[in-house]
């Protein structure tokens, strides 16, 4: 009997268009809830798109999926309909502000963790079609290190950890990094984003606390991607259900996101990791779903 990853191995062998995009997979996570992770994900994606990149956001926050809520959209279909083979991957892609494409997850990700062999193969075949379709697929995971979040972190290779200057947020952000590292997943590349900072000095202090401890006890270099300034316009935008980078294009938080995206695309993130992209992601995910 063929193993669960057989269809994926066949897909990996398939030749792709040499002119297609080299799709990059990013996981965004946090050690605890309430740090603004989903809001960051949405506005990070919109700003990447503003710079000319094509982006797809995958809402992988089980039970608390809210990318659609932040945009005031009620998606008709979700990952659930894909896993039940009621819809294709293209049917469940919705468009939000500035035509940003997203897939609602919700309970579908619970189902993803207990699929049959045939269902996993179908999921892989469908998601593989996104390879080269977009420049970035960004998974907005749940807060904390659940088994579902861990799978996405391991499979995606690139992970942005969002924290705030609060001591509990700092501790929990480090705990995620430590947990992934101590389980032997050394290929995962972490970057830090400190949200709701009063000034760059507070952001640097916060990031340094995590980076120094990670270096001392885990021998890991954790670069800082950037800081997002605390801004009353963010909560105003949430109430309006409009992303703050669109509702308040000159706000301090918007300028912070723009600087952060400039930094991400200009070099510190480095080239696409070897064995990265959609096929690399699926290859790792299939092993984890066995």
Automatic annotation (TrEMBL):
Keywords: ATP-binding, Nucleotide-binding. It holds the Pfam family CbiA. One of its GO terms (molecular function) is ATP binding. PANTHER family: CELLULOSE BIOSYNTHESIS PROTEIN BCSQ-RELATED, SEPTUM SITE-DETERMINING PROTEIN MIND HOMOLOG, CHLOROPLASTIC-RELATED. GO terms for cellular component: cytoplasmic side of plasma membrane; cytosol. Residues 26-243 form the CobQ/CobB/MinD/ParA nucleotide binding domain. CDD domains: FlhG-like. GO terms for biological process: negative regulation of cell division. Signal peptide: none annotated. It comes from Paenibacillus hemerocallicola. It comes from the Bacteria. This is MinD/ParA family protein.
């Amino acid at each position: 009997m063929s193993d669960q990853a057989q269809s994926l191995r066949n897909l990996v062998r398939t030749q792709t268009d040499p002119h297609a995009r080299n799709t990059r997979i990013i996981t965004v996570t946090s050690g605890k809830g309430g740090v603004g992770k989903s809001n960051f994900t949405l506005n990070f994606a919109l700003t990447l798109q503003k710079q000319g990149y094509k982006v797809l956001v995958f809402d992988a926050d089980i039970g608390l999926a809210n990318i659609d809520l932040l945009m005031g959209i009620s998606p008709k279909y979700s990952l659930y309909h894909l896993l039940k083979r009621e819809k294709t991957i293209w049917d469940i892609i919705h468009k939000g502000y500035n035509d940003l494409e997203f897939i609602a997850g919700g309970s579908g990700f619970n189902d993803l963790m207990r699929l049959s062999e045939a269902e996993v193969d179908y999921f892989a075949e469908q998601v593989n079609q996104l390879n080269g379709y977009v420049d970035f697929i960004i998974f907005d995971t749940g807060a904390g290190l659940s088994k579902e979040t861990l799978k996405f972190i391991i499979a995606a290779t690139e992970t942005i950890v969002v924290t705030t200057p609060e001591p509990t947020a700092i501790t929990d952000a480090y705990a995620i990094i430590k947990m992934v590292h101590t389980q032997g997943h050394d290929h995962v590349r972490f970057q830090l984003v400190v949200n709701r900072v009063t000034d760059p000095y507070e952001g640097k202090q916060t990031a340094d606390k995590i980076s120094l401890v990670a270096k001392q006890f885990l021998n890991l270099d954790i670069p800082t991607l950037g800081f997002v300034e605390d801004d009353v316009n963010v909560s105003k935008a949430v109430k309006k259900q409009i992303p703050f980078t669109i509702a308040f294009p000159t706000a301090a938080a918007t300028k912070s996101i723009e600087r952060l995206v400039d930094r991400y695309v200009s070099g510190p993130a480095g080239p696409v990791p070897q064995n990265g992209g959609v096929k690399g992601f699926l290859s790792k995910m299939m092993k984890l779903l066995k």
